[in-house]
Automatic annotation (TrEMBL):
<dbReference type="InterPro" id="IPR001296">
    <property type="entry name" value="Glyco_trans_1"/>
</dbReference>
<keyword id="KW-0472">Membrane</keyword>
<keyword id="KW-0812">Transmembrane</keyword>
<protein>
    <recommendedName>
        <fullName>Beta-1,4-mannosyltransferase</fullName>
    </recommendedName>
</protein>
<keyword id="KW-0256">Endoplasmic reticulum</keyword>
<dbReference type="Pfam" id="PF00534">
    <property type="entry name" value="Glycos_transf_1"/>
</dbReference>
<dbReference type="InterPro" id="IPR026051">
    <property type="entry name" value="ALG1-like"/>
</dbReference>
<feature type="domain" description="Glycosyl transferase family 1">
    <location>
        <begin position="278"/>
        <end position="424"/>
    </location>
</feature>
<keyword id="KW-0328">Glycosyltransferase</keyword>
<comment type="pathway">
    <text>Protein modification; protein glycosylation.</text>
</comment>
<keyword id="KW-0808">Transferase</keyword>
<keyword id="KW-1133">Transmembrane helix</keyword>
Length: 436
């Protein structure tokens, strides 16, 4: 009886597999030639490079399936493009039972099953363009889906996932070693590869025998200097929520009846917008609040900047805006709350996708604290700052020279003391320009 039951179960399983195979062949026969699946096992709204890939492909007539989490709304031009179809996947929560490694393994297995099921339900693409990291389990799942579809797998290497894991667990942790082995093994199974730096291109070839093409990030067209009128509208919008953008009425105003923010004022009659007299300098940084960015460096530099002013150095007051979401945001907000500045205000907003480039194009100085976990990727935020013609101070790491060249297109610092000196130098120039 038991043997008969097992035989029946096996026949049922074979029947189910045969039915799935016939269904997939039918879908393949229906076509999908030229379609591209752009996939990231992460938040689409916080994956600008993959959104740009989707837009570029769509503008060249390709049908695009954009696959990922929808925790943050993508840009409106992505949402409104008729050639782009967004397929959301759910962000699975970690099981809170058993040892950490057991919880992680269960989550990876669940993600793999969910992702494969979602992909096989989609219209068949000719290509799958996958972001890595995160690559566990998405590289293996995408490879399996491409085998079924007879499609080509393209990996866009932004970094190595195992090096990001090592920031939390250490390089010798079992999970990190498994992730490293997995990434190299399944990375070799791709058909084509992009990467973000020449340093990564060389590393992929030397250590993984993977040939890749360097595809440097470029700023989208909407990253540009923001006209004064749009600056004023943005400041007034942000002033409703964030104190540093509100008008400081102790400051003398040219027109007492004007609509004012901390930085601008608009005459109600003429609609003319001018800079507010004695306005603070606007410093901006963006972050995912992860271990590869140490914001204590910026906070210490701001303490030194405050000290410069207290010692009599003529510098403008500062509004420091740090945008983004991430796991360490609450930790740094607690550090910020302990600071008591007289000449510096700090806020940590999450901006709408359309507001971020406007604020970047309104700022006086950009600061980047991204230190690559592998030493092989570049901060996209600096690319966006360059698009807005924003002066940039960036912390040093191995391949930063591929993007920022010290004293040519930006400044590079190694610690908080160097950053403080650069803030003082740049702010003095901003103040001189405002007075001139």
């Amino acid at each position: 009886m038991a043997a008969g039951g097992a035989a029946l179960a096996a026949l049922a399983a074979l029947g189910a597999l045969a039915a799935l195979w016939l269904w997939l062949r039918r879908r393949r026969a229906l076509g999908g030639a030229g379609r591209v699946c752009v996939a990231v096992l992460g938040d689409l709204g916080r994956s600008p490079r993959m959104q740009y890939h989707a837009l570029s492909l769509a503008r060249h007539g390709r049908g695009v399936t954009l696959l990922g989490y929808l925790q943050t709304k993508p840009r409106s031009d992505v949402l409104d493009n008729e050639n782009i179809r967004i397929v959301p996947i759910s962000d699975l929560k970690t099981l809170q039972v058993g040892p950490k490694i057991f919880q992680y393994v269960v989550k990876v297995i669940a993600q793999a099953m969910q992702l494969l099921y979602t992909m096989l339900k989609m219209d068949q693409p000719s290509y799958v363009l996958l972001q890595n990291p995160p690559g566990l389990p998405s590289i293996a799942v995408a490879w399996v889906a491409c085998l079924v579809w007879r499609s080509k797998l393209i990996i866009d290497w932004h970094n190595y996932g195992y090096t990001i894991m090592s920031l939390i667990h250490g390089r010798n942790h079992l999970l990190v070693q498994i992730a490293k082995w997995y990434e190299k093994l399944f990375g070799r199974l791709s058909d084509y590869n992009f990467c973000v730096t020449n340093a990564m291109k060389e590393d992929l070839w030397e250590k993984c025998n993977i040939r890749a093409v360097t595809l440097y990030d470029k700023p989208a067209s909407y990253f540009k200097e923001t006209p004064l009128e749009l600056q004023h509208q943005l400041y007034m919008k942000l002033a409703k929520v964030y104190e540093p953008f509100k008008a400081q009425y102790a400051t003398e105003s040219v027109n007492s009846s004007a609509e004012r923010s901390a930085f601008t004022e608009m005459d109600h009659k003429s609609g003319c917008v001018i800079k507010t007299r004695g306005q603070p300098a606007l410093l901006i940084s963006s972050t995912s609040w992860t271990e590869d960015e140490d914001f204590s460096v910026l906070l210490k530099a701001l303490e030194d900047y405050e000290q410069y002013i207290n010692e009599g150095v003529k510098l403008p007051s500062l509004v420091c805006v740090i945008t983004g979401k991430g796991p360490l945001k609450e930790y740094y907000n607690q550090l910020i709350d302990k600071l008591h500045f007289k000449h510096i205000q700090i806020c940590t907003p999450w901006l709408e996708a359309e507001d971020y480039p406007l604020l970047l194009g309104s700022a006086d100085l950009g600061v980047c604290l991204h230190k690559s976990s592998s030493g092989l990727d570049l901060p996209m935020k600096v690319v966006d700052m360059f698009g807005c013609c924003l002066p940039v101070c960036a912390i040093h790491f191995e391949c930063l020279h591929e993007l920022v060249k010290h004293n040519e297109n930006g400044l590079i610092f190694r610690d908080s003391n160097e950053l403080a000196e650069q803030l003082k130098k740049k702010s003095s120039g901003i103040q001189a320009a405002a007075l001139g």
